[in-house]
Amino acid sequence: MALDKDADAARPWIEVAKPTHPSLIDTKHVVADLYNMVNVPTILWIDEEGKIVRPNDVAYGDNTWQEVTGLDADVHKGALRKWVKGGEVPFPLGRVRELQSLPTAEHQEARAEFAMAQYLWTQSKAEAAKRHFERAGELAPHDFTIRRGSMPMRDIDPMGEEFFKMAGEWAEAGNEWYHPLPEK
Amino acid sequence: MTAYTFIDQDTIAQVEVDDGAAPTLSPTALHQATGWDVKPEGFCKGEVCVPAGAAVAADGAVDLAAFAKLMSRPLVIDQAERAISLGAAARDRGGALQSLDAPDFTLPDLDGNLHSLSDYRGKKILLAAYASW
């Protein structure tokens, strides 16, 4: 599921990967809101009964970004195989709850600002949209689905100078912008 | 009355709003925008009712800010753009996550076909969020 400004932004990846699983487009960040996601990639596991058995975690399909993130994709993939093939869940349900991070009122206000901004952007109200995107980012500075995810809708390169400045300042202040689970 | 775009998370409605210092809308408009009805018991949706207190005036007008506050939901009003965004309450989102029942959603694929999480009940699901950015 792509948290992107429109289907065309995600299209090149989907067309090359040709996934056999559903590959969805979430322009309004509906899933980010429902599951309190704050960056990508974010993964979680849901069992046959619709229960969350692994809460939000950071995992990659391969090790392209291992030097940056310090995460070995094979650790998650190994655990995933054990669950799929052997039914081995990573945590007791009580521990799943403890590992969940829950949104604050301020964060939900940020998401309401994002929804306003994203709507205005679809109406070609770029300046008004920008004001609400920026307000959303102020309310939830840890939420990169808002701060970085809105860059393409603010005519800012999400891989460019402004992103690295933002990420650098955030890290220098002692903050994380990826939130892997403390245990695997 | 002024025509406003009312964004309630992923649904969008056009409703008439009296956008004075304390914006109000009619019970009909509230229903169109949010699915909540004004009844003698208060604001009701399905089985749930919340006492309305002073959020509903004698003439039936619903004070939007008071409604949002009662529901603990964030409200963003842009009078210049005539748009309102009503977000989800942190306590509702947090409570749903702590229940461990994966919240359902419906989204399109590249061809516009809609898929719901609940369509895949009975299978194990790896839900993965990524982005081009």
Quick structural summary:
Chain A is mainly alpha-helical and 184 residues long.
Describe, in plain words, how this protein is organized in 3D.
The complex is a heterodimer of chains A (184) and B (133). Chain A has 184 residues and is mostly helical. Helices cover 49% and strands 6% of the residues of chain A. Chain A contains nine helices and two strands. In chain A, strand 1 and strand 2 (52-57) form a beta hairpin. The radius of gyration of chain A is 17 Å and the shape is globular. Chain B is of the alpha+beta class and 133 residues long. Helices cover 18% and strands 35% of the residues of chain B. Chain B contains three helices and twelve strands. The longest helix of chain B is centred in the last third of the chain and has 9 residues, at 90-98. The radius of gyration of chain B is 18 Å and the shape is globular. The model of chain B has no long low-confidence stretch (mean pLDDT 97). Chains A and B meet through helix 1, helix 2, strand 1, strand 2 and helix 4 of A and strand 8, strand 9, helix 3 and strand 12 of B.
Protein traits:
heterodimer, A: 184 residues, mainly alpha, two-stranded antiparallel ribbon, B: alpha+beta, three-stranded antiparallel sheet, 3 helices
Explain the layout of strands and helices.
The complex is a heterodimer of chains A (184) and B (133).
Chain A: H1 7-17, H2 30-35, E1 42-46, E2 52-57, H3 66-69, H4 73-86, H5 93-99, H6 105-122, H7 126-139, H8 144-147, H9 161-172
Antiparallel strand pairs in A: 1-2
Chain B: E1 2-8, E2 11-17, E3 24-25, H1 27-34, E4 37-39, E5 42-45, E6 48-50, E7 62-63, H2 64-70, E8 75-78, E9 83-86, H3 90-98, E10 106-108, E11 114-116, E12 125-129
Parallel strand pairs in B: 1-9
Antiparallel strand pairs in B: 1-2, 3-7, 4-5, 5-6, 8-9, 10-11
